[in-house]
Amino acid sequence: MVASNPLFKGWTIKKFNATVINDVWPEVSFFTLVAAMVALVTKLTSHSLAVPSSLLTVLGTVLGLVISFRTSTAYERYQDGRKMWTNITIASRNVAQIIWIHVPFERVDKDKKKMTVVQSVIEKKTMVNLVQAFSVAVKHFLRAEPGVYYEDLYPLICFLPRYANTVGPPTPADMLPLWHASEDDEFPLHTATHPTASRSLSESDINDESVSSLEKGGSTVHRGQMEPTPSRIRRAKTFDPEAALADVQSHRPLQPARNPPETGFFDFFPVFRIFAWMFSTCSRRMRSKAGPKKPKGPLAESNVPLEITIYLSAYLAHLLRNNWLAPALATGLMNNIASLQDTMSNLDRIGSTPLPFAYQAHLRMSLWLYLFFLPFQVVESFGYLTIPGTAFASFLLLGFLEIGQEIENPFNYDLNDLDLDAFCLGVQRELHEITAHTTPDPTQFIFSAWNQPLAPGDRRSAEELTANVDDYRHSDHADSEPGMMSIRRVLLKNWRDVDRITRQ
Predict the structure, then answer these.
(1) DSSP assignment, residue 480?
(2) pLDDT digit string (tens) for 146-187?
(3) Which of 73, 431, 435, 479 is surrounded by the fewest CB atoms within 10 Å?
(4) What single-letter DSSP state applies at residue 107?
């Protein structure tokens, strides 16, 4: 598929903001004014500002190579970030499939205590929800949004234990790192109450569209559509993916799942940021003269994605202790959990390792000097064309430099960054698709009237083939008519027919 030209598709304010024009126009304007001054002075006065252009070709070539290297390095980081998110998606699928399919529904632990089908479904679906929470936690972790109190994360992990000591009243000293890092003096966790119990499911809540059943060993699990609680307002005409999550109570307001910085005046006019810097500097000095600043306490940090993988690993150990998972599958589950941890570390490496400041500063200053002296070197040959020529060269070189700086960290909210929210929603959809399967016995769907396994050589259904199994039992030397051939001859005929039909 050939991608369409983005310049000829519908332009919007959002698409315009995705360009680097807002970032480079002050510098382009400055160098264009310098070019205009040089051209006007040289052409309208007796003074010539032209200088020899001996170094123009050499310096321009070297500077272009350096800018190209800068952009290529930034795009490589962009691509690595996308590959790492693909690894998260693959590992999440594998973990969810192993948990949902290979962990048995009917289980008996070492104490001969039998687990019902309902308990098994709740347990396995809860762990799959933790897999979904991992990608959401990584998204907030990369965007430097600490804590767990977000609309798309808290409903997935709110049931995890909060205190190490479960005996006696909860105290801040027993608070686990996952929750201690999100502690707020305004909304202390130790004052939180347990959520109220959900109302029981009645017959009026059950209809043809909201009922799903899971039959296993004579047991049936019904799941009905619960009415939304007042804590969440459903908006039918807006995109609200958090509406698919659980409705749980929180002792403090939850932050939005997406909280991009607001676009301000200085984003469109960055040249005036010098005044904001001067104002903030003066304000800090005035506050320092007024009195000493109140010291801040140590900031406790917790790696939320790591905490989630710890619970997944503990669940794996729980399965092994009760002999509920084969060793080979346990190895696969452990490897995929390790892949999630490894991918998280690589994403953190990409997001927290910018290019050295000295390299970026020296490259930008070298480009500024080159563009500043460019009109002096070309004014003798170009004349008044020096003005648009310098503007074009400034826009070209500064644009590539700014693109490299913008995509260097592809995990923020910029329009050119990776769409982490879409990646997380994709993982959510796939995990729900996995848990939608009831893992039936293959004999329930293989030998059906819908299946024609030997087509195109033999277009009878599997139900008909099994009913007339004698057709193939003694037919090694039979005629080549459909239905009377051997299995080997049918498969060879399939190969010849498919090879002939599919070749153009």
Answers:
(1) S
(2) 889 999 999 999 999 888 877 777 777 888 888 888 877 777
(3) 479
(4) E
Contact 56, 382 (CB under 8 A): no
3-state helix, strand, coil in the chain (%, to 5): 60, 5, 40
CB atoms near residue 428 (< 10 Å)? 22
Residue 487 C-alpha from the chain's centroid: 48
Q: Which of 124, 157, 430, 425 is nearest to 305 (CA)?
A: 157
End-to-end CA distance of the chain: 20
* Positive/negative CA dihedral, 24, 27, 30, 33: negative
Cβ atoms 148, 182 nearer than 8 A: yes
What's the predicted TM-score (pTM) here?
0.79
Helical axes 357-382 vs 21-44, angle rounded to 10°:
40
Positive or negative: CA dihedral 182, 185, 186, 191: positive
CA distance 447 to 456: 17
The 10s digit of each residue's pLDDT in 190-208 is: 666 666 544 444 444 444 4
Q: What CA–CA distance (Å, rounded) separates 131 from 340?
A: 10
- What beta strand segments (E) does 163-264 contain? 212-216, 219-223
